């Protein structure tokens, strides 16, 4: 029987379709996907997810391999970068070693617990309410080395961390608080002790500086105002403490806001608030233990991030008038 030869164009088309199909298969096998393995799943349920995502082809075979390797109970939940069509042994290695998707989590200086909870929820998927509840849990706080504080407010060090996506709230909070204690090396608490302060009071003052200062050069000066007013028994009258006491941040405070009843309202209550109002950075912590030597008791914002510092109430009133006149003229 004689085999009929295909015309050259038809042969080329057939070869093109064949190779294109092989190419698509290879691309599909190499395609990277993010696979979520929730907590509490059985090995069979995990195998089903992997099959659905195209990571493995044989669900039963994968489960049996887990048993042979005694890896059923060693699979770690989380978010994983994987490729379709991977070798089952490689998949098991990833899941047992916890080679998860790593996510940067940036906490800016001056962030409070509510803001941090929102950042963590967006980045890692941790429920913000769960995060906040844990940050106020006394037993957990003591596990982190924090005692006699209302919450972990101010004990989370502001910097960029890298966590596995889906990490639990306990681990994330432990790492962030541990980092603060690493930054507070022996010399800082020692210096605070010489000033008659414990770590909690130090972080409280540092948080006030963090919220009030926008220019680094002014941090030690603002610190001096805080200490000078405390020494004289004057109320601190720091607007940021009122903002902290309010349910939501306001672009501008009114006189009625200054009368809100809260232990954090430093217009109504003398001395320090019960605890920090935000996470202070190292510059504010250093300013708290190395304040400038001044006799300033007041300051008013110029509106450009800097302040006018004054010694008397009359000077303060005059400074406020100058700032008001300046802004009426258009800020020039």
State the share of residues found in helices, binned by percent.
Answer: 40-55%
Which stretches are poorly predicted, pLDDT < 50 over at least 5 residues? 17-29
Structural class: mainly alpha
Mean pLDDT: 90
* Spatial arrangement of strands, main beta sheet: 1-2
Order of helices and strands: HEHHEHEHHHEHHHHHHEEH
Query: Which shape, going by the Cα principal axes?
Result: elongated
Overall tally of domains: 4
Our count of helices gives 14
Integer-rounded radius of gyration: 30 Å
Query: How is the main sheet built?
Result: 2 strands, antiparallel
In short:
With 332 residues, the chain is mainly alpha-helical. The protein has helices at 8-30, 43-52, 59-68, 88-97, 113-124, 128-135, 138-143, 169-183, 187-194, 199-212, 219-232, 239-245, 282-289, 313-328, and strands at 32-37, 78-83, 102-106, 160-164, 298-301, 307-310.
Task: Please characterize this protein's 3D structure.
The chain is mainly alpha-helical. The protein has 14 helices and 6 strands. It has helices at 8-30, 43-52, 59-68, 88-97, 113-124, 128-135, 138-143, 169-183, 187-194, 199-212, 219-232, 239-245, 282-289, 313-328, and strands at 32-37, 78-83, 102-106, 160-164, 298-301, 307-310. A two-stranded antiparallel ribbon has the order 1-2. Strand 5 (298-301) and strand 6 (307-310) form a beta hairpin. The longest helix has 23 residues, at 8-30.
């Amino acid at each position: 029987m004689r085999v009929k030869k295909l015309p050259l164009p038809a042969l080329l088309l057939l070869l093109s379709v064949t190779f294109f199909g092989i190419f698509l298969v290879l691309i599909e096998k190499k395609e990277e996907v993010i696979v979520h393995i929730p907590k509490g799943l059985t090995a069979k349920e995990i195998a089903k997810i992997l099959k659905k995502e195209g990571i493995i082809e044989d669900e039963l075979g994968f489960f049996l391999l887990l048993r042979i390797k005694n890896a059923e109970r060693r699979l770690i939940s989380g978010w994983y970068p994987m490729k379709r069509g991977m070798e089952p042994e490689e998949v098991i290695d990833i899941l047992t070693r916890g080679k998860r998707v790593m996510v940067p989590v940036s906490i800016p200086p001056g962030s409070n617990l509510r803001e941090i909870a929102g950042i963590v929820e967006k980045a890692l998927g941790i429920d913000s309410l769960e995060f906040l509840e844990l940050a106020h849990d006394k037993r957990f706080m003591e596990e982190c080395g924090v005692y006699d504080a209302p919450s972990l407010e101010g004990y989370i060090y502001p910097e960029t961390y890298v966590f596995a996506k889906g990490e639990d709230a306990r681990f994330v909070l432990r790492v962030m608080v541990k980092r603060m204690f690493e930054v507070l090396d022996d010399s800082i608490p020692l210096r605070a002790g010489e000033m008659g302060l414990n770590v909690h009071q130090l972080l409280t003052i540092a948080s006030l500086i963090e919220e009030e200062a926008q220019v680094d050069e002014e941090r030690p000066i603002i610190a001096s105002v805080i200490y000078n007013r405390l020494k004289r028994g004057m109320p601190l009258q720091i607007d940021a403490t009122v903002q902290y006491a309010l349910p939501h941040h306001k672009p501008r405070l009114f006189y009625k806001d200054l009368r809100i009843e809260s232990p954090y309202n430093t217009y109504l209550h003398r001395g320090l608030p019960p605890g920090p109002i935000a996470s202070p950075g190292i510059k504010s912590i250093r300013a708290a233990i190395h304040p400038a030597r001044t006799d300033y008791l007041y300051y008013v914002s110029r509106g450009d991030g800097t302040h006018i510092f004054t010694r008397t109430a009359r000077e303060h009133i005059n400074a406020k008038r100058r700032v008001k006149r300046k802004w009426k003229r258009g800020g020039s």
